[in-house]
């Protein structure tokens, strides 16, 4: 059996970022930057008012006993620079309006009295008050995000604001899903004795859809060596990553490892010291890359959260491939596995004193999924021939 560390070293060695492409900014959600993204404009792009009020020259306030003369012009948002404002004059301005030449300070309208076309201030002002200066926040050409960062809604908005129109990102992997097992009955079909409803196909399709993968195919594989070889070959030819479920253990009908090897894939590991998911198989070669996940649905769910997410992040060029482990406290004692790291499904909540508490759930066996209604985190319990005590600090990740 290989260790978890071996597996992650193997991913680091064999999973390379896919080619890059340029995409329009609105289509880049969830993609990973392949090059730094630079601002195309200053931010603010021009000197403007932060308030609804009056633009004036601070120096004119020294001789403003009779107030300031209000000009007819209005500096509304979206309007050009306007004309020069003479000393002793002021101009009506709104939030986002361009400061007219000759002005440097904004009097917010709450402190201003307008009496017969002259304005009077009821409170003192500071030079530059109420003004957002051009390039105060960002200068054109400044790097706003680095290669390897994920483009989420907030970052896309920040880049859009700085005039960025297209982004260099890594290609998103195309995925071929192969769900194996003669006993597995696809959605909507009646069961005969000995058969089971398909959980893995439903899980995989939903999991990839949730994460914005659009080029995903799903096929069912009979327990037949020739059909297994053919479908894997087709998957390798059409996708960047083939994921199989089932057929990777030591039973007479577990054909995946042999088929993958016959197609020229080099096995990097088979059988990991983890629970669930022990018979996980990973290999690659000129033909492509394959992750063979054991068929038990609990093992598939766990391997997606721990292994598949990592392989995908590497293929997409993320600088910090997940999982990113956090620290929390076990809410209840639990016996660990002496030989294998256990991925424990837990319910996580934060106590009133701010402690992250991780409560182990029942039904942890790898053929069980019923606790997923309450699961919102996975705890990593490294192999130990003891009971992990209540209150012990452990690693965990949130799951959505
Ligand atoms: N002698 C040994 N037997 C087993 C070992 C072992 O080390 N020695 N390992 C066990 C472990 S751990 C696991 S995990 C399983 C994995 O076996 P396979 O990957 O070959 O998976 P299958 O046998 O095809 O299926 C396992 C189980 O899951 C059910 N299944 C499969 N696909 C689906 C699906 N799409 N939807 C719902 N349920 C599915 C299947 O009917 C089996 O019950 O091997 C152990 N055996
Ligand atoms: O490794 Mo298996 O998924 O424990 O039953």
Summarize this entry quickly.
The protein has 400 residues and is of the alpha/beta class. It has helices spanning 4-14, 153-161, 200-210, 225-238, 256-262, 297-315; strands spanning 20-24, 37-38, 48-49, 53-56, 68-75, 89-93, 105-108, 112-115, 118-121, 131-132, 143-145, 166-170, 175-180, 184-185, 196-197, 216-221, 241-245, 266-270, 274-275, 281-285, 288-293, 326-330, 334-335, 341-350, 356-360, 377-381, 387-388, 393-398. Helix 3 (200-210) runs parallel beside helix 6 (297-315) and helix 4 crosses helix 5 (256-262).
> What small ligands are held by the chains?
ligand LQZAQKY5, molybdate ion
Please report the first level of CATH classification, the CATH class of the largest domain: Alpha Beta
CATH architecture assignment of the largest domain: 3-Layer(aba) Sandwich
Shape: elongated
CATH third-level topology of the largest domain: Molybdenum Cofactor Biosythetic Enzyme, Chain A
Number of helices: 6
């Amino acid at each position: 059996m290989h260790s978890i560390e071996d597996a992650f070293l193997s991913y680091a060695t064999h999973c390379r970022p896919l080619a890059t492409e340029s995409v329009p900014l609105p289509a880049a959600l969830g993609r990973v930057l392949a090059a730094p993204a630079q601002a195309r404009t200053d931010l603010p792009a021009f000197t403007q008012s932060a308030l609804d009020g009056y633009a004036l020259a601070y120096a004119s306030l020294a001789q403003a006993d009779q107030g300031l003369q209000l000009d007819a012009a209005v500096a509304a948002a979206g309007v050009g620079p306007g004309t020069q404002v003479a000393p002793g004059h002021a101009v009506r301005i709104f939030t986002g309006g361009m400061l007219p030449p000759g002005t440097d300070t904004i009097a917010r309208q709450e402190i201003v009295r307008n009496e017969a076309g002259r304005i009077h201030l009821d409170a003192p002002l500071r030079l530059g008050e109420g003004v957002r200066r051009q390039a105060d926040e960002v200068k054109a050409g400044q790097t706003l995000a680095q290669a390897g960062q994920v483009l989420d809604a907030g970052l896309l908005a920040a880049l859009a604001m700085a005039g960025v129109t297209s982004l260099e990102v890594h290609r998103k992997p195309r995925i071929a899903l192969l769900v194996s097992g003669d006993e597995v009955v696809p959605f909507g079909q009646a069961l005969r004795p000995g058969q089971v409803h398909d959980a893995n196909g439903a899980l995989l399709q939903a999991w990839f859809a949730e994460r914005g993968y659009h080029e995903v195919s799903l096929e069912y594989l009979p327990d037949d060596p020739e059909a297994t070889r053919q479908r894997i070959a087709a998957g390798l030819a059409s996708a960047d990553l083939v994921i199989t479920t089932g057929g990777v253990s030591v039973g007479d009908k577990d054909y995946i490892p042999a088929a993958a090897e016959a197609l020229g894939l080099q096995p990097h590991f088979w059988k990991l010291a983890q629970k669930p998911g022990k018979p996980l198989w990973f290999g690659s070669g000129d033909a492509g890359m394959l992750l063979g996940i054991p068929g038990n649905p609990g093992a598939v769910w766990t391997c997606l959260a721990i292994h598949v997410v990592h392989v995908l992040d590497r293929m997409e060029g993320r600088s910090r491939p997940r999982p990113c482990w956090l620290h929390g406290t076990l809410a209840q004692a639990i016996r660990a596995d002496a030989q294998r790291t256990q991925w424990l499904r837990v319910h996580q909540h934060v106590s009133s004193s701010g402690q992250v508490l991780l409560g182990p759930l029942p039904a942890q066996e790898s053929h069980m999924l019923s606790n997923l209604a309450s699961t919102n985190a996975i705890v990593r319990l490294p192999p130990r021939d003891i009971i992990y005590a209540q209150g012990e600090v452990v690693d965990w990740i949130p799951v959505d």
